[in-house]
Amino acid sequence: MVFSFLRKPGLPPEIEARRPPGQALTEKWPVLHYGGVPKILRNKWSLRLFGLIDGEPMGLNWDDLMALPQTTTTEDIHCVTRWSRLDMSFEGVLFSEIMSLVKVRPQATHAMIHAENSFTTNLSLEDLLRPGVMFAHKADGQDLPADHGGPVRLVVPHLYFWKSAKWVRGVEFMDRDRAGFWESYGYHMRGDPWVEERYS
Ligand SMILES: Nc1nc2c(c(=O)[nH]1)N[C@H]1C(S)=C(S)[C@@H](COP(=O)(O)O)O[C@H]1N2
Ligand SMILES: [Mo]
Fold this sequence. Notes:
Blueprint (H helix, E strand, L loop, with lengths): L12 H4 L7 E2 L20 E6 L1 E2 L3 E4 H6 L3 E8 L4 E12 H5 L3 E2 L5 E6 L4 E5 H4 L5 E6 L2 E2 L9 E3 L12 E7 L6 H4 L16
Parallel strand pairs: 1-6, 2-13
Antiparallel strand pairs: 2-4, 3-7, 5-6, 6-10, 8-9, 8-13, 10-11, 10-12
The structure holds the ligand Nc1nc2c(c(=O)[nH]1)N[C@H]1C(S)=C(S)[C@@H](COP(=O)(O)O)O[C@H]1N2 and molybdenum atom.
């Protein structure tokens, strides 16, 4: 994307239409998280699917992830700290693809995403099953850098970016909504940027 319009006053209407209320567009990709950057080697990474599923919890390693169908998306991202970045490209495996690897029980309505350093964030399965939601290992054509959540992060482009857990390690299927890390400090349970669901 050419960002030269950011250096001119006003925004073209087609760009303005993509800017949620209270957000400013940025060319850079800021790094934001709680705590340090965990260094995880690809061959040590794994993702655990557990909670309301039939049978034993399932573990996926890096090779398993790479063997699944890969999807590339172009998405706008919106951080609750009021920056938005347009036309980011992500590559990875759709959440729906991962979910289909296990038999999720019918009473499951939500999931807790678990990441390194005990970071968690809660989402409805409806939100997780939206087409752009994926476990990404590439951004803007490059391997996802460690400070942006590499080797693998969740990307949920239609919600504020705190839902996009970096260094993701597990998905826990649940029969109700439960607050994750930021949500327990007052962030919104859903976080739709278009209606400014910033805090509860
Ligand atoms: N594991 C983990 N993931 C996280 C966070 C965190 O603290 N830990 N912070 C969230 C927040 S608040 C934001 S805004 C985005 C920032 O992602 P970025 O640094 O790639 O821009 O990561 C989200 N994912
Ligand atoms: Mo954030």
